[in-house]
């Protein structure tokens, strides 16, 4: 198992105590002077470069970062190793906005759509990601959808199911990347999230579901987004550290 730390939320470098994991590799991208998309894709390119040799050697990397857009870098790294994965996307949100539908303009809310080819010239093409077909991405939970997202998913080949229904029989066939946005966990159990959503599954339920997928032998990488605000609260820090330590050992 190799733990890769990408200490960024979009192009913002996070503090050293924000995502506390014992990293084997810490990604240190050189950010260009380009636009926000360019800087985000610089982070993705560096992530892909860290992931590829681990997967090529038969390992299962666990990538930790501060936002969901890094997942494209993880998937690109797996692809460069000669593996064509599907993605099981655990998230409280749909992340299926585009520049045209987003009310906030928050790029992280477009993470699934750019993974499946939206705004290709701004995202995938800049770091060599081959976009996935819609049916190769499964949304697990996504309980908080904007109207435009619900409308898109009503006709999209990307399916959405509850976390409790995720199993070997309900995920796409072939190799899998697990993407786990920690805000999928009920906000009452994990305070301090940037985008908290009530009435979600417990951390134990989410971890157990990931463990069942890993037990199939089909998981080739795990990508974890920890989109929380910095905190000095000792209770929050302890809870975060415990959860991250559980996730770091998932493939083991």
Automatic annotation (TrEMBL):
Q: Does the keyword Transferase apply?
A: no
* Lineage: superkingdom: Bacteria
Q: Sorted alphabetically, which InterPro entries does this protein's record hold?
A: Ureohydrolase, Ureohydrolase_dom_sf
Recorded GO CC terms: cytosol
For this protein, the parts annotated as crossing the membrane are none
Question: Which keywords belong to this entry?
Answer: Hydrolase, Manganese, Metal-binding
According to the UniProt entry, its GO molecular function terms are: arginase activity; manganese ion binding
Q: Which PANTHER family match?
A: ARGINASE (PTHR43782:SF3)
Give the family this protein belongs to, as stated in its UniProt record.
Belongs to the arginase family.
Q: What is this protein called?
A: Arginase
């Amino acid at each position: 198992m190799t733990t890769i730390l990408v200490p960024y939320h979009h192009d913002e470098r996070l503090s050293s105590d924000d995502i506390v994991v014992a990293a084997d590799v810490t990604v240190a991208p050189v950010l260009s002077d380009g636009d926000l998309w360019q800087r985000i894709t610089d982070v993705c390119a560096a992530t892909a470069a860290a992931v590829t040799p681990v997967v090529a050697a038969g390992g299962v990397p666990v990538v930790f970062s501060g936002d969901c857009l890094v997942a494209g870098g993880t998937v690109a790294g797996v692809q460069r190793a000669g593996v064509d994965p599907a993605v099981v996307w655990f998230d409280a949100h749909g992340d299926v906005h585009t520049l045209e539908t987003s009310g906030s303009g928050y790029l992280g809310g477009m993470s699934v759509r750019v993974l499946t080819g939206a705004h290709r010239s701004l995202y995938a093409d800049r770091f060599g990601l081959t976009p996935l077909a819609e049916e190769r991405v499964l949304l697990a939970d996504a309980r908080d959808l904007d109207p435009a997202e619900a409308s898109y998913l009503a006709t999209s080949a990307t399916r959405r199911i509850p976390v409790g229904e995720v199993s070997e029989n309900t995920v796409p066939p072939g190799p899998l990347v697990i993407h786990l946005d920690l805000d999928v966990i009920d906000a009452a159990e994990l305070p301090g999230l940037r985008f908290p959503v009530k009435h979600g599954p417990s951390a134990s339920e989410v971890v157990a579901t990931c463990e069942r997928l890993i037990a199939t032998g089909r998981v080739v990488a795990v990508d974890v987004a920890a989109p929380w605000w910095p905190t000095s609260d000792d209770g929050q820090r302890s809870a975060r550290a415990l959860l991250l330590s559980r996730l770091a050992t998932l493939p083991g």
